[in-house]
Amino acid sequence: MIIINNVSKTYARGRVKAVNSINLEVKKGEIFGFLGPNGAGKTTTIKMITGILKPDEGQIFINGINVVSEPIKAKKQIGFVPDNPEIFNRLTGIEYLNFIADIYEVDGKQRYKKINELAEIFEIKDALNSSIGSYSHGMKQKLIIIGALIHNPPVWILDEPLVGLDPKAAFLLKEMMKKHADNGNTVFFSTHIMEVAERLCDRIGIIKKGEIIFTGTIDELRQIREENDSLENLFLELVDNE
Amino acid sequence: MNKAISTVKFYINSVFGFSGLVRDLKYNKKKAVKTLGLLGLILYSFSGLIAMFTAFNLKMYDLLKPINQQGLVVLNTIIISTAFTFFIGILTVIATYFLNQEGDIILSLPLKAWNLFLAKFTISFLSEALFAFVIMATGIIVYGIKNGEGVLYYINSLLITLTIPIIPLVIGYFIITPIMKFGKLLKKKDFVMYISGFLALGLGVLFQYFTNQMTNFDKNPELIMQKLTAPNGLIDLTSKLYYPAAIAAKAIINNGTLESFVYLLIFIAIAVGALVLLLTTMSNIYYDTLIGSTEVQKNVKRMDEKELKKTTIKRNLLITFIDRELKLMNREPVYFINGPMVIFLLPIIMGASLFFQNNSILFIIKKLMNHPDFSYYLNLISIGIIVFLGASTSIAATCISREGRAFEFIKSLPINPKLYITAKIIHGLMFGILAAAIILIMDIAFFKIDTISLLIILITSIIILTMIFILEVFAELKWPKLNWDNPQKAIKQNINGVVGIFGTMGIVGLFGALIVKFNIKSNGLLIALIVIPLIISVILYQKLLSYADKRFYEIEI
Fold first, then answer.
1. Is residue A28 part of a domain?
2. Which residues does UniProt call coiled coil (chain B) (predicted)?
3. Four-CA torsion B481, B6, B43, B155, nearest 10 degrees
4. Domain endpoint, select from A176, A192, A208
5. Does A90 share its domain with A66?
6. B531 found inside a domain
7. CB B360 within 8 A of CB B477
């Protein structure tokens, strides 16, 4: 469960307000899609949830744990897939996964089971012994996804996770997200692909210029707009009109 | 041609960040002051070299004046400057050969191969021009003032100075480009980078030989002068081997005459001709080496079930962090060559120095060995060298900056900052111990050092290094340089790294000077060198842990 209370964040010594007093609640067992135009504040919000950035104001709770006051405890609840998988290019895939598993204190048996299973599904098992620098963008993305799931996190956060994935891997990822939420976990992801959000999300949140302009189900959005249109059109109208 | 100029401008801005500095001067004065401070520090690091060359040129001028051969000061400065820009130039060529902005975007632009090669050449040229300027100034100013030269002399000298690095760099690229092509054929770019690093090591030894010749000057100036100035002497021979130097000298010395102007034009024409030759013959090969330079060779050895099971075991977290530090540092050629390799490189250069000066320094050492306080001084010198070597790896001084943008990902993980920081200090100390081992082996081999001294040297140097590393990590936490596009910037253009090396050098030098000046000969000093840094280290480490616990979460890119 993620709770965001009155969170604000500014850049450039307060000159640029990236996120302005946002409130959000994402429940257990829910897939939540975070939508918004470029520069709206999606990644800033995700970075604050994952403890990368410190909010200027407000509080964020992960399963009831405050991210700022108890960062290690809160982060243990999270599995995070960043928007850019360019990290630790000099390590091999297996070295990276072992590093992440050590950080999350995953025992040998569980990590073997998880790596074996997920690397097989994503078809990167043969590449685990190669350095990450030799991977394609999609392969790096798959590796990071495996790393994020290695400790079976109660809260899975993904920033633009489908970028660079081939259709099969994208399909598999969507299935995994569903399964993860079905198991009572929280899934929070940002995307620009409206079809994905429409098909996958239990609820969505739309952010524009640092402010949340809508949260709810897609049906609720249709009711508010009094239109039975696709999410893409609803989103465009909402973002343009607000 | 416009495309070539635009590419050159783009490269200059992205590597040196001149436009960034101008912008900072307007909008971010604090950052601009930091950048200018770093520049000042780099220039200051030349001060020893400047003093050495100036003293040499002053003596040389006074000795040559009576025989009306003082013009040789200028010729000699040109030769030294050329040699210097060649040796340092090779390193620059290697260091700047692959830059990140040359990723797929630059290669996909409709640019000709020579456009990119010229832009890259300009980058190397600008750094070398600075070296050439510093060295040339020492001879040109000495000769200019003593000979009462006019404005034209200085204008000619400036033009010649700016032209000097071109030919050595052209030669450098003629050597390195085919090596890189060979590396590409072998599909082992990293391996070639390491090999080039060792090539630089060889050149360093050679350079040591030349500077030793100059320091010997103090002992017997007349003999050295004879060696340099006699027909077929060093200067005569070098200018015959490298005739452009003689042309450049004539252009400066005979300033104001038509002959001088013609020589100036000839020198510039030779340099430009060499550059054109390089661009026409090597551009395609250079371009070819860039294509796929971002590709990394895949390990084709697949992991079987048994192996996978064997590797997936839970480890102690501190060991996990240290293991990651070691792998990320040692596998990145830029980090390894500028970091841990220094531990091997400096002792080899020092060894070469002893070898080339076998008549002087070794004789002094042998004489000193009979001195009753020899063992005391040897202990102190060994400690000084180990401390300097340990700090020269820049491991602790660049430990956060090397993470780059991946630091954000690190922050998203449930990492205990105290453990994370401790691993970085231990990483630095591991190489400190390695440096100590190398120096102690040398001490045992050359001076038959006893076990107690060995232990004193080891313990003292490691405790002092611990204190230095803690201070360096403090600086890194406070001012990390995480926003970079080329790993060079994290280690070589990082003010913390530069301060770490020169600061340690300064402290070691200051201590040495104080000990010599006040003739401190007491075992109490050795005890103080253990106890004081130990107390400081314990206090600082506690402070560092609590600072890291807070600061880790505040660092934002």
1. no
2. none
3. -170
4. A192
5. no
6. yes
7. no
Contacts of residue B405 in chain A, CB cutoff 8 Å?
A: 84, 86
CB contact under 8 A, B311 and A94: yes
Domain extent for A115: 76-192
Is residue B360, in this structure, part of any structural domain at all? no
Which of B311, B317, B327 to mutate to test binding with chain A, by most A CBs within 10 Å of its CB? B311
Question: For residue A22, what are the β-bridge partners?
Answer: A7
Q: What is the pLDDT along chain B (557 residues), one digit of tens a residue?
A: 688 888 888 888 877 777 777 777 777 777 777 777 777 776 776 677 788 788 888 888 888 888 878 888 888 889 888 888 888 788 778 777 877 555 667 888 888 899 989 999 998 899 889 889 988 998 999 999 998 888 999 999 999 999 999 999 999 899 888 888 877 766 666 666 676 666 666 666 666 666 666 555 555 666 666 666 666 566 666 777 788 888 888 888 888 888 889 999 999 999 999 999 999 999 999 988 887 665 555 666 777 788 888 888 999 999 999 999 999 998 888 888 888 888 887 777 777 666 665 566 666 667 777 777 888 888 999 999 999 999 999 999 999 999 999 999 999 999 999 999 999 999 999 999 999 999 999 889 888 889 999 999 999 999 999 999 999 999 999 999 998 877 888 887 788 988 898 889 888 888 888 888 888 888 888 899 999 999 999 999 999 999 999 999 999 88
A72 contacts B317? CB cut-off 8 A: no
B396 in a domain, yes or no? Answer: yes
- Indicate the residue type of B265: L
**CB-based contact A166:A138 (threshold 8 Å):** yes
Residues A64, A161 share a domain: no
Count how many domains chain B has: 3
Residue B306 at interface with chain A, using a CB cutoff of 8 Å: no
Query: Which residues of chain B does A133 touch, with a Cβ-Cβ cutoff of 8 Å?
Result: 296
Q: Which domain holds residue B323?
A: 317-346+368-554
Number of domains in chain A: 3
CB–CB contact A87 B296 (8 Å): no
Min Cα separation A227/chain B (Å): 40
Interface test with B, best of A115, A129, A134 (most B CBs within 10 A): A129
Please tell me the distance from the alpha carbon of residue B377 to that of residue B125, in angstroms, as a whole number: 43
Does residue B188 sit in helix, strand or coil?
A: coil
Nearest to B301 among A47, A89, A129 (CB): A129
**Complete DSSP assignment for A111-166:** HHHHHHHHHHHTT-GGGTTSBGGGS-HHHHHHHHHHHHHTT--SEEEEESTTTT--
B420: nearest CA in chain A? A103
